[in-house]
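In the previous chapter we treated chains in isolation. Here, by contrast, the input contains two separate entities that must be folded as one system, with a combined length of 782 residues.
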Amino acid sequence: MRKMLTIISTVLRGNAGKNGAEVLSEGARAVVAARTYADFTQQATFDIKKCDVHKLEEGPPLTSTLTREDGLKYYRTMQTMRRMELKADQLYKQKIIRGFCHLYDGQEACAVGIEAGINLTDHLITAYRAHGYTLTRGGTVREIMAELTGRRGGIAKGKGGSMHMYAKNFYGGNGIVGAQVPLGAGVALACKYQEKNELCVCLYGDGAANQGQIFETYNMASLWKLPCIFICENNKYGMGTSVERAAASTDYYKRGDFIPGLRVDGMDVLCVKEATKFAADFCRSGKGPILMELQTYRYHGHSMSDPGVSYRTREEIQEVRSKSDPISMLKDRMLNNNMASVEELKEIDIEVRKEIEDAAQFATTDPEPPLEDLCNHIFYNEPPMDVRGTNPWSKLKSMS
Amino acid sequence: MAALRCFLRSGKNAVAAGLRREIHQTAPASLQVTVRDALNQAMDEELERDDRVFLLGEEVAQYDGAYKVSRGLWKKYGDKRIIDTPITEMGFAGIAVGSAMAGLRPICEFMTFNFSMQAIDQVINSAAKTYYMSAGLQSVPIVFRGPNGASAGVAAQHSQCFAAWYGHCPGLKVVSPWNSEDARGLLKSAIRDDNPVVFLENELMYGVPFELSEEAQSKDFTVPIGKAKIERQGNHITLVSHSRMVGHCLDAAAVLAKEGIECEVINLRTIRPMDIETIEASVIKTNHLVTVEGGWPQFGVGAEICARIMEGPAFNYLDAPAVRVTGVDIPMPYAKILEDHSVPQIKDIMFSVKKTLNVPLRVKYRGHILLCHCVLCCSVSQ
């Protein structure tokens, strides 16, 4: 068995000869009995796709260096996100999750790559396809799933649901298409006002990209040089309308006109990370806003009520899955460069599966919010007040 | 003669009328301050008190405010805190809300509340509902302010009253000041409030001076949101109103007093949360209720008051149905004669009071003045 592993590892290392892998210990190339920490490549540099640029002299770098530690972290997070969304799909079909449920599977590289390019002290706001971002911004799988099932252990105590999840420096989760964009610029205004060198990442989809308020926001963000990274997650379909049928110009990275833009491969977590770092540096240098278009894809339909095949073909979905899946891409890169082993990644898969199962268990057994909570949280920092119930004799209590 | 002077109060002989209005013991250091100046000083003091407070809107900075309410503030505080925006309400209202979410305390000015319709999604869905949706994680300390309701000769698209629209929504506080003390105290309270407040001013009141007591002039003077004020005590009938119409009610009350009818005039001050207790206590005393507002009747402020009175303890004390005096149910016309007849006049308030009290109305018929209870006598001369 050990000999087999050795042979396999040598073969794999041979394939990883490209891209200048740096090997920490010289002795690693020698025959090893067991796979230990010291056997793995600690760091590797990868070629990434060149970004199209708009009103920029140069774009992000064409290579990205990935450490083993980061690689495993990104893998784990993306896998967690993937499995969490698939579990939500299951629970929705069992009618344990109700209402709207917009799933993010396929787009994991965007959320993870963006977070890799900014700090937790930066700010982020997105639209309703928000479960992935709630996770990267500090929410736990338990809290997210319990919010989807409407339980008191949910991240918003069950009162928000799928589209209204919040965390520190994460402003949701917004249901009205496009409304989050001016909000995000407002957060950026606060960043600039408070002089803390923080920025705001403000996300919207290809469908929202045609909203008037977004152009109003581009104007003000640019005028006032707000530290705002506008990011268009272009997953090719606004609900059931393909980009060609919705937008006269599908070059979303150019739609900011006077705002510099980048078009980025949103299925490659390293590409997203480098582009985000580039954009963040741009913002922090006081040059004002910048726009990124992430070309990505969602495997599910628009929401759980959309099978997602009436306006696109199953072949198209399958092709993206087999050729551009973000998790597979990262996995292949790491394995081919001896940055991780198959077993190790399997181990992570098992841990993730367990975490999701536990979270689902919690989300289905945690009790619903108490009725006493019905009228709470109307106002902040207020003495208790009465709220009219459904009839004049029903006076309900509201606490802050 | 005195009655005529009262009618001229709004605008023209404001100063004279202000002094002659009620016989108060005036405090030694009280000042005549216009509503505009009261708002200006309130904002100035709050900007000074808290670094996080800032003002944004169209023409608020270098133009000194479209109605000069923010005069002098840009010169004093500069570009960082007094921000001129492009004419993009939805955008800048959203930016204001976002900045409130991230720790600032914005005052978002709408040049008039008619333009707030462009931005109403941000006011309701982004500001009002967020604290609830986030179960207390995300508060939104913002003030939306600007002139509301009818002005003079600005026609249909610029004359709508939004008290009922915003008053409908949980998560918002909605205030509607009448005089300078209201304006000053309520604006300071609104800015200090940690929740979204819609602050409905009135353009026709901006230039009207009122007495500000020494207490009201102090930097920490606030008027509590959610509490109505009894502007005039009376025993025969309760008049409830907000904003400019409070002045009309007081004028009507002054004329009616000469005929022996003593009106209790309540200034709502806050539309939401409404101080129904003060109205109930008054109705229990007077047994009669007339609400007066500038906005349209259907689903309006008066409709809400009447519904609540019906549902509460005061109903059993009513000797006559509670009625509403409102703006005419039409888009606002331009021609002066039409415009004048589109909003409640003092005579309309007096008519409604007398009808409610079942007091005979003086009617001209074939050259004679008659007393008549007849429902058909709608063109009434006092």
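The CA atoms of residues 205 and 233 of chain A lie 5 Å apart. The longest strand of chain A covers residues 228-234. Compare these points with the single-chain example from earlier in the chapter.
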